[in-house]
Amino acid sequence: MSKTFEIIERVGISNESNSDAVKKVVMEANTEGGVSWFEVVEQRGRVTQDEKIEYQVTVKIGRKINA
């Protein structure tokens, strides 16, 4: 029996931390279908106009698809 997966790429954003941004984006994707794995491919941040830090992560998410 073969297994087939799809990979989606999403960007998560948080004002708390990189790990919070990852958790938010992965859990949101999980509501659409079972997440099998994820890979953080990029981390970055920015300073907002009101001098707050915004954490941003790009995440690849693997989900099993029914074939």
Secondary-structure blueprint of this entry?
Blueprint: E1 4-14, H1 18-30, E2 35-47, E3 53-65
Antiparallel strand pairs: 1-3, 2-3
Main sheet specs: 3 strands, antiparallel
**Helical residue percent band:** 10-25%
**How many structural units, i.e. domains?**
1
CATH topology description? Dodecin subunit-like
Q: How much of the sequence is in beta strands?
A: over 45%
Strand arrangement in the largest pleated sheet:
1-3-2
Q: Note poorly predicted spans.
A: none
User: Radius of gyration, Cα only, in angstroms?
Assistant: 14 Å
Mean pLDDT: 94
Compute the separation of the termini in Å: 10 Å
Secondary-structure-based class equals: alpha+beta
Compute the number of strand runs.
3
Per the principal axes of the C-alpha atoms, what is the gross shape?
elongated
**CATH architecture label name:** 2-Layer Sandwich
Q: Please report the first level of CATH classification, the CATH class.
A: Alpha Beta
Work out the helix count.
Answer: 1
Q: What is the CATH superfamily label?
A: Flavin-binding protein dodecin
Give the topology string: H per helix, E per strand: EHEE
